[in-house]
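Researcher: Let's try something more involved. This one mixes different molecule types, so please make sure each is placed in the same coordinate frame as the others.
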Amino acid sequence: MIQLENVSKVYRTKTIETTALNEINLTISEGEFVSIMGPSGCGKSTLLNVIGLLDEPTEGKITVAGESVQNYNSKATSKFRNQKLGFIFQSFHLIPDLSVIDNVELPLLYRNVSAKERKELSAAALESVGLKNRMDHFPSQLSGGQKQRVAIARAIVGNPAILLADEPTGNLDSHMGNEVMDILLKLNQEQNTTIVMVTHDENMAKRTNRLLRLYDGSQVA
Amino acid sequence: MIKNYIKLAWRVLSRKKFFTFITLFGISFTLMVLMLITSYFQAEFGSKAPMKNQDELVILEYLTLQKVMYDTIAVVDTTFDSGVAVYDTTYDTKRTGRSISTSSFNEKLLQDHFRDLESIKASTIFNTGIRHDVFVNNSKLQIAINHCDAPFWDIFNFQFIEGRPFDASEVTQQAQVAVIAQKLAKSYFGKDKNVLGKFITVDARQYKVIGVVKDPTSSPDPIIVDMFLPYTNAEESYRDPYFGNYSMALLSDGNVEKTKKEAISASHDISLDLQDEYNELILKPVTYKELYAKALYYDEDPAKSLQFISWLLIGLLSLFILLPVLNLINLNVSRIMDRSSEIGVRKAFGATNSQILTQFVFENIVQTLIGGLIGFLLAFIAMYFINQSKSLGAVVLEMNVSFFLYSLLICLFFGILSGLLPALKMSKLQIVNALKTNQL
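Model: All components are placed in one shared frame. Result:
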């Protein structure tokens, strides 16, 4: 499902060159739930961003969902992200001016889906995370756990093949963190969604199929 | 998608109320002023009765006679050649002074020299609103009277509410007939609707009303009078072969510059019998717009007056538009920067650069249209009070379709310009960098 061959990412300024990823080789199969761990600044989020086409690698080859994506132009990349990928961020990144349901339907907005269908799909996604009764609320009216569940609903509403989660439980207490993790596991098991998750929490990582460890931009396990 | 853009724009505006107030105030106030200015110029220069022919008009307003004096100065240069003085005298003639008289024309002078220019379709002579007292119900009314000839009605196409203009034979026969303006009909005859055939007494003469014209809504002197009489009824205030009370309007066949040249050339045929008093005659024919500009900024060359006033107006208007636009761009940059994280999320979920650009420009257009609507209402209210107070004289500001379209265009210009630049910058933002700002 995801294949990285000798992928490196180097950030260059006039004086300093920082290697964020160093020749990463990685294969993630369809339906796998993989967690990535490592100390702060080791390149976990960079790896996730590169897989999610949010950032470009300096070198190497990336294949996602069978498509060699790194030569895509900006428009094709947008379309690919919209149809194949879903994102969950540590700090939720909900849009404060939009209601819960409007936040959830965001990916469908860029897919030419009718308003009626958008509403139906978004309501179903919210129901799957247990927040259907909150769909007309605004993000500021929700708790942290509820915000993250809305973010998950937004990530899955378009039924993407791959879900990329960057510390989805990082800003939550353990109870809420477990609730979010349960939802992700259920998605993985019932929908066969491939999930790549960056985490600092060993307990959460243990619940996934496979654990990758990074250190200074290199894969160590 | 459009519905979503509108919904989001509305939410963004209502979330930051103070920012929205500042922005809308700037837009609406600027638009109100622009609308008032547009309306003013449309009233003055719009092609409407009785000034439909204004672009083809050449006006002979004033004649200038001058006496130029020359002094001959002898300069004696003394040198010594072997102790003997040698005198070298040179003579220099200098224009040392002049006396000038400027006035409107003697009627006969105009008739004799300018009626038959090649490039004109018609010509009229008129005097511009000499004031007279008339009495109605024991109270005094001061009215402006224009004495003119019959072609006046062809060149200045007034709308007749009732009756008709006077014709050439009535002018020749010195008929005591009058065409009056609607406002005089009201003030002189009161509520009596049927004024045709009634008489108005001016300077102990009775004039029969044969027509009533709609009040003009712009301000040229010959048209904003209360009463029009055949010029043969007027008494020349002084018998001078050159000066008098009259001006002339020439209706050019399309080439006003040619008509101006012909008029100047015709003026060279006027012989000056007053060599002792004056030795030069100067005629400066002007177009209607030049006449207007000359009143605001005088230059010996009327074309330069118009040029100066035009550039001044363009400059002031550009500045007036530019300052709020720069301010808006500044406000919009900071507002959109605030939302960089939102841009990151939208792009992560599939929004293309052009969709982001469209969204922000759309928001600005919505914002500007709301500002435009408020500005439109403010302009409407301001126009009402300006018209009521008569502070612009005869000029009546009014709303109409083209005026609304101008305003709408100005609104869109504002919206697109002030939204496009910051939106263009932000739409190209790298997703990773946008998300890092973490504003959500």
